[in-house]
Amino acid sequence: MALKVVNVSRPMSDHSMFDAAGIELVQQQVGPDTTKAEYIDILRGVDGAMIGTLPLTDREVLEACPNLKIVSRSGVGVDSIDLATATELGILACNTPGINTSEVADHAMALLLSLTRLVRETDGAVKAGKWSDDPPAIAAFRGQLRRIAGSTVGIIGLGNIGRAFASRIRGFGPERIVAHDPYVPQTTADLYGVQLVSLDELLTSSDYITIHTPATAETHHLINAETLARMKPNAILINCARGPLVDPVALQVALQSGQIEAAGLDVTETEPIDAEDPLLGIDNLIVTPHIAGASPVSAMEGSRKQAENVLLVLTGRPPHGLANPEVIKTIAVLRATDAGRWESVPDFSTALAL
Fold first, then answer.
1. Is 44 helix (H, G, I), strand (E, B) or coil?
2. Regarding the domain with residue range 101-287, which homologous superfamily does it belong to in the CATH classification?
């Protein structure tokens, strides 16, 4: 029986890579109104799935799909997939690391520069006629502008995007670039001019803090009332990673009370953020609609690698990114006892383990 793949992510106009491998590819539409039962019906008989953020691919969905071998998401995040269940069942949860590293690092820089150089405020003042009609109002901005040179910049999470940000910020001449990442050695950080420090030291010493760490149980509300209280009063916080990393209530209090100077968010805990959310009424906060990773280039690259993940795995080759590497052991046990869902697929586990 031919292998079958469903795409519920971005539509694909070119199916040639699947046709050449003899794999059937079907496109299905899902959205916010798609029920779990409908989602299960779409995935139940397929061997691979290209998925998006919603609907959630949780335990109930995965357990209802006995043929499913791989779910592939575009981008780095896989927080919509129940990784523990996928690993338990022998299902690969794949991503496409690196496709939007440049875009996200650029966006974090753009938010930081907008806040330090008051781009929104001065643009608004000029367009309101204040440059010619109210010179004192324009002059007041001069004392509020900030330089990055000579400062301390803190990066929470020194993965691909954190490193790309470090490379960009070095050109602005900070005195120190520090980072907190328990999974990265100092020898790697040295390549980017970064000093690894404890989270507490980063929070208390940094003038500018940017977050580039995954959303996990460990990092949920990493930025909260306690951690915000450790920051400098002039600190500027940037989050282009995941919304749940920052407690929105604590951030609101910190910004409105002057506990920190400003913040820039591309992600919020609930997305889309409610139009009446009090965060949207705070002047010293910029919020963009989770577009940091977006560009035509990253979209094209993401769609291609997302599809290639499925194709590679179903033809016995390692994918571009694997979020649950422990699944390799599960699959090895299945192959040695009852292969089940992996019965018809070449063994790739040795290549993945290398």
1. coil
2. NAD(P)-binding Rossmann-like Domain (3.40.50.720)
